[in-house]
Design a protein that fits this description.
Largest sheet: none
Helix content: over 70%
Structural class: mainly alpha
Shape: globular
Number of strands: 0
Number of helices: 23
Radius of gyration: 23 Å
Order of helices and strands: HHHHHHHHHHHHHHHHHHHHHHH
Distance between the termini: 48 Å
């Protein structure tokens, strides 16, 4: 059997998903790099980023962001009992999802001018007209995203992670190709790339993978008995809009009130910030979720809690040092990636300041990714939806006030506060409903990692600033040297201190890097 058709265990699954996400995120960074090179932080780039507000909201309204997540436990249950029944359930869900998203897309296409005003209230009439044009190109892509999510759920259920892991990579390739081929028409080419890429990457690839990796058997099934129960589970995700899925839309909506270029600066900074979130947290969440769902269905709650605890600790152990180091190198990172062409020095300065603020909440992003999937694996979509909606409603006036008084920095600060409060709310509710077993040792372990990270950052800062290149004459080389020198210094010092003072947390990571890592492992409980 080909590698991409085979079933993977949780460790290999995390590596496959993480690798795919890493490549897709770097491809995503290359895409926004190309946008910054050709259009900088201008009204045209602002319009492109704002064009995703309404399509993404429609996607979230149909639980698109979590569609595969909510579907997997049901598919696991029905296919385990009877494969024929599983296919009938799948066919019924697929039919209604496709019909619903087509209806929403058609309505959005008709009312695009009105929806453009909602997406970017700070734009003038001419800009809104072009935004409506972009919106009509991008909207049909949601059909392929949602229907493709049904197919991806089958692959996740089968524990075939390869194709889902490369979907975003292929999708970004088409966006880049469209932007390059049609660059004379402004950002329109990128919009056409979104549409074509969604069909090929998000729908066609999973379709072919399902058919060849175990078979696809679609029935004409309108009303399956399990459809009502699935709808009740998915309903909270439809009517309850979590801050995690609306954060990007708020950044664009309120960014339109902060002046020309603000949406672009915030989008560039957020895209950079989401790289470690996606590679570490999203990979851990996606890879662990099918196993968590299976453990819960089996009733093995002890192993279920241990798996969540391990995933939470591992995610925080990775994201805390990464986010601290990225704060250190925020300015050279933006300078290296984006400062070229239409993206000038002032754009670098503005984007870097926003990146520093957004990086503060990276551990919260990772934390809620894992804990959210723990809720979903128990078929509890109501709790995260209620908490997410409550936090969202409370934060809307905060977004507005901070935007008015602090501009783009206020938008970034509101985003950080939202994710923090949402993570706290999820933790309190889980402990109230299910006890604190999944958080055992988490505060102590996280505190130790934070201390080691802060100690490691000081020599890394000094060495990074000692690079031999002048940023005024060689901005890219100076940025590259600062990132490499500080990164190597931080990585070595952190690894040594981590292995010596926190061996109980370091062991799983060091064992994975071979003989060198195993030599660093120290017996004992650690010195911190």
């Amino acid at each position: 059997m080909s590698f991409w058709k085979s079933r993977q265990q949780i460790g290999l699954a995390a590596i496959i998903v993480g690798g795919g996400i890493l490549l897709s995120r770097f491809m995503g960074l290359f895409r926004v790099k190309l946008i910054s090179l050709l259009f900088g932080a201008t009204r045209e780039s602002d319009l492109y980023f704002a064009a995703f507000v309404i399509p993404d909201f429609i996607n979230y309204l149909l639980a698109g962001g979590y569609f595969s997540i909510t579907l997997i436990p049901f598919l696991t249950k029905y296919f385990k009992e009877d494969e024929e029944e599983g296919w009938r359930f799948f066919s019924s869900v697929f039919l209604w999802v496709t019909v619903s998203i087509c209806a929403f897309t058609f309505a959005g296409f008709l009312f695009a001018p009105e929806l453009a005003r909602l997406a970017a209230p700070g734009l003038n009439a001419e800009a809104l007209s072009r935004l409506a044009f972009f919106l009509r190109i991008i909207l049909p892509a949601q059909i392929f995203f949602l229907s493709g999510s049904c197919l991806s759920a089958i692959l996740f259920m089968r524990k075939q992670f390869f194709i889902p892991a490369i979907v975003s990579l292929v999708y970004n390739l088409f966006i880049i190709s469209g932007g390059v081929l049609l660059r004379a028409r402004g950002m329109e080419g990128f919009c056409w790339g979104v549409l074509v890429g969604s069909f090929v990457a998000n729908f066609l690839l999973p379709l072919l993978a399902v058919r060849s990796g175990g078979g696809l058997s679609v029935r004409f099934s309108v009303l399956h008995p399990g459809l009502k129960k699935y709808f009740l589970v998915a309903l909270p995700l439809m009517i309850g809009q979590s801050i995690t899925v609306l954060d990007e839309q708020f950044v664009r909506i309120f960014g339109s009130l902060a002046g020309v270029g603000a949406i672009s600066w915030l989008s560039y900074a957020r895209q950079t910030m989401m790289v470690p979130v996606s590679v570490v947290a999203q990979a851990a969440g996606m890879a662990s979720y099918p196993f968590l769902a299976e453990l819960f269905v089996k009733g093995d709650l002890s192993k279920f809690n241990r798996t969540i605890n391990s995933a939470l600790q591992n995610v925080l152990t990775l994201l805390i040092p990464i986010s601290i180091w990225m704060i250190l190198v925020a300015e050279p990172t933006i300078r290296l990636i984006f400062q070229q062409g239409r993206f000038g020095f002032s754009d670098t300065s503005n984007t870097a300041r926003l990146l520093v603020v957004l990086l503060v909440c990276v551990p919260c992003w990772g934390y809620q990714q894992v804990l959210g999937r723990a809720f979903y694996s128990k078929l509890d979509t109501l709790s995260p939806a209620v908490m997410g909606t409550a936090v969202t409603l409370l934060m809307v006036p905060v977004y507005y006030l901070l935007t008015i008084y602090a501009g783009p920095l206020g938008v970034a600060a509101a985003s950080v506060a939202s994710l923090f409060f949402y993570s706290v709310a999820m933790t309190v509710w889980w402990k109230y409903r299910s006890g604190g077993a999944v958080f055992a040792g988490l505060p102590a372990g996280t505190g130790k990692v934070l201390v080691v990270s802060m100690v490691s950052i000081l020599p890394a800062w000094a060495l990074g600033k000692a690079n031999p290149f002048d940023p005024h004459f060689s901005p890219c080389m100076a940025a590259f040297a600062e990132i490499i020198l500080s990164g190597m210094c931080f990585g070595v010092i952190f690894a040594l201190l981590f292995a010596y003072f926190i061996p109980e947390l370091a062991k799983p990571f060091l064992e994975r890097i071979g003989p060198i890592g195993r030599r660093l492992i120290r017996d004992g409980s650690g010195g911190l």
